[in-house]
Specification:
Structural class: mainly alpha
Order of helices and strands: HHHHHHHHH
Length: 293
């Protein structure tokens, strides 16, 4: 008697990772709400450049510090263009990236609006531009987090690993801390060639140490975040400790070396990034780890 033929299980797909790597990703259908949001983001990018140019014309301060802050503020225009693409492709990361980008842009431009010397009120073109940019950034954040149509669109995750939303939020905010620390550090380096707020024997080692730690964080931070995404508990603890240290030390350095002006202009964005990083790590502590590669 011949045994009945039993169909064997199909072999597992081979080369799926390679197929994912070389597959051209197609964007999902774009609802009208998404198109309006992308146009708003594009308008915000253009307004960022325009307001920076206006502030540069009316800024009472000059020198190395103004150049660093202006370049850093205008680089955010490129960030908004990248945000347009992530929204177009329905990326979940659009929300945390848009939040950090819009919030820090307001302070990046605001640090150029507030006059260091002279009158208390900046020129009306600079003030009007800052108000316009603040409204645009606020509208971008509102639509990203409050629009049901956009929330339904921003659902696409990585093709290689499923990552919880709050882990992505912590990743974006955590990686931004290095850049937010570097900008005031470069401004503080510029003060060493003029008149630092504290004596040279103290200012020089503090600024050099600040620079070395910031560069180290920029190099090590992305590697630690890879293990955070992989679900390693030790990596979450390490990055939480880093954010906990940056939260008070970053604003303190800005205040000591750059004064109350630096505390408001540079310290507040550092606080925002550190707090969002810590909250993202805390909110994702019970969420499932990455499921597939």
């Amino acid at each position: 008697m011949v045994a009945p033929h039993v169909a064997a299980d199909p072999p597992p797909p081979q080369g799926s990772l390679l197929r994912d790597l070389f597959t051209i990703e197609r964007p999902p259908p774009q609802p009208s709400a998404v198109r309006r949001l992308r146009m708003l983001v594009l308008l915000t990018a253009a307004a960022t450049v325009l307001v920076d140019l206006v502030n540069l014309e009316y800024a009472p301060e000059g020198g190395f510090g103004l150049a660093v802050r202006t370049i850093w503020a205008m680089m955010r225009a490129l960030g908004f263009l990248f945000l347009m693409r992530t929204i177009r492709y329905g990326r979940v990361i659009s929300r945390p990236f848009g939040l950090i980008l819009a919030a820090t842009t307001v302070f990046a431009v605001g640090r150029l609006v507030v006059p260091r010397n002279g009158g208390l009120v900046p020129p009306w073109p600079a003030l009007a531009g800052f108000a316009l940019l603040s409204l645009l950034c606020g509208a971008v954040i509102w639509l990203l987090f409050r629009s049901p149509a956009i929330a339904a669109h921003l659902t696409r995750k990585s093709r290689f690993r499923e990552v919880p939303v709050w882990v992505l939020t912590a990743r974006v905010a955590g990686l931004s801390m290095g850049a937010l620390l570097l900008v005031p550090c470069l401004v503080a380096i510029g003060t060493l060639f003029d008149e630092p707020r504290i004596p040279y024997p103290v200012a020089v080692p503090v600024v050099v140490g600040w620079l070395l730690v910031t560069l180290g964080l920029g190099f090590v931070g992305p590697w630690i975040m890879i293990f955070v995404i992989l679900g390693k508990r030790w990596a979450r603890v390490v990055f939480a400790l880093i954010a906990t240290v940056v939260l008070p030390v970053g604003p303190l350095l800005c205040w000591v070396l750059l004064g109350i002006d630096g505390l408001l202009r540079d310290g507040v964005p550092i606080v925002i990034a550190a707090v969002v990083t810590l909250y993202g790590l805390w909110a994702s502590r019970h969420q499932p780890r990455g499921l597939r590669i």
